[in-house]
Amino acid sequence: MRTTTTGPGRAGDPVVEVHHDAATGTATYLVSDPATRRCALVDSVLGFDAGSGRTTTGAADRWIDRILGRGLVLEWILETHVHADHLSAAHYLKSRLGGRICAGAHVAAVRENFAAVFDDPGRAASGEGRFDHLFADGDEFRIGGVPVRVMHTPGHTPACVSYVVGEGGTDVFVGDTLFAPEAGTARCDFPGGDARVLFHSIQRLLALPDATRLHLCHDYPARGEAPRLASTVARQRALNIHVREGTDVETFVALRRARDATLSAPSLLFPALQVNLRAGQLPVAEANGVSYLRIPLNRF
Domains of the chain, with CATH numbers? Predict the structure, then answer.
């Protein structure tokens, strides 16, 4: 597994490792406490080939090997939001290593937004009961001895959260809220998304100390280029093409709406939602023992 590692700088700070899944552009993070050897995985990926309907566990298995090889104990399997561009490996990871699957408290709002789309709220679009815990804004927990504070950062979706990790909040896992400064910010055109709300969520992140490391969930580099997966508050304030310092909310909303109007739906939108609203668990098998995904036609 190709990883990048940072930290710890002092006691109470985490060791952070990242791997970029080229197929989906997703960054998965292993966050560990070297003192207790406890760890968390943030935004894991289950492989999915839409043409064949086959799921694969290669990326998750490499993380399992990494965790076991380092003698770590997986305490937490964390989601920053209900992803629409890849399937979560949370359920598979828990079945192999244990740990608690957690997301933001507003997962139910995402489920309700899509229940009518799937016309099957009891099965294909249900999910909050399958998470072990749903975090509210300001909730705190620990990865071993490393403190974590949860920030509700909606706008991309109603359920987005960021995880502020380490003594003094040295590392923040921001999900899709921010991209690399050259790429800007998350789209807001999914049901429940709101550009105005996203702007205010981003201001909360940019109010953190300048040196705070922001770990990003996605990048889509050109062939031969390295993915851009980390930034700082100072760099985002100075350079982000959508929300650099001095940008007001009305300018941002107009820019975001214009940009979103040009975007196509993610290719894995419907498969991802039906799995991720269930904390990475595939839909319940039919009488023939096969799980099925529903694809609404002419809906978007």
Answer: 11-268 (3.60.15.10)
